[in-house]
Amino acid sequence: MKDLAALQALFQKEIDALQLGSAPEKLYDPMHYIMNLGGKRLRPVLALMGAGLYGDPSKAMPQAMAIELFHNFSLIHDDIMDAAPLRRGQETVHIKWDENIGILSGDGMLVKAYQYVAQCSPELLPEVLATFSQTALEVCEGQQMDMDFETMDQVALDTYIKMIQFKTSVLLGCAMKIGALVGGATKEDAEALYEFALLLGTSFQIKDDYLDVYGDPEKFGKQVGGDILSNKKTLLWIEAEKRAALQRIDFSEYVAMPANEDKVESFQELYKILDVDAFAKSEIDRYYQLSLAALDKVSLDAQSLAPLKEFAQWLHGRES
Q1: CA–CA gap between residue 114 and residue 169 (Å, rounded)
Q2: Residue 2: is its pLDDT beyond 70?
Q3: Which pLDDT tens digit goes with each residue over 233-286?
Q4: Is 147 exposed, middle or buried (0-12, 13-18, 19+ CB in 10 A)?
Q5: Of residues 239, 182, 236, 247, the one with CA closest to residue 205
Q6: In this structure, how many other beta carbons lie within 10 angstroms of the beta carbon of residue 81?
């Protein structure tokens, strides 16, 4: 995607020149470390795309940086909660330094994110800050819901959808909406663009669930079956548990299996028997189509919206 690559390169220049601070070193070095671990930078690119619909994408560069700072702050804290040793193939912040440094550096990144997001015109500031703050709180709520699921016997599918939207999708929506507002969008356009990115992000996360079970390990970049081995309640797991009960299949026997390759293969077969793999695909497509429908509410012509539709199509077709 030409537009995506150009905006990624534009944002990377900002990352390369980023100066968050230097002393104390143990506060700022971890911030620069995680910000330079790479990634597709999809969230800040969405902010730039939002502004670019109405003019110069660079107009939303401070807000794009705020989104990326917030995202990486959340990753530092998530890694501590998950006791994760690696992030993008490198040591996580709390492993490279320690947990206390990780917590404090993450807190500092959150403050920096607010400093960047506030760099907009005074008349836009209330709406931009309200959107960013609401999103930040929802991401925390989503993370807590995800942790709560670990000790719950059953999770309703609509509750799961709300969790993935809060934990992942709302930040995509926030990026797009704030970028559009700073770029000059009406509130009505900004809300429609928020809905587009939120729904696309929902499709994206369900696709992640599906690829965890059926993805190509070389393309997916992660261990296939990881969610199954950890008994993670994904969309496929939740739907399979419901359908197994209706067909009098003892789902608990599958859950109790030792965490090895046989368990992964057994779940893959069970999902196919219960037609859960097809259900997941249909939900991926449904949210993708809903996201495209949201663009119909935006008061721009088809040519202006073409880059967003191309981006959505690219994200929908991803295998990693």
Answers
A1: 20
A2: no
A3: 999 999 999 999 999 999 999 999 999 999 999 999 999 999 999 999 999 999
A4: exposed
A5: 236
A6: 11
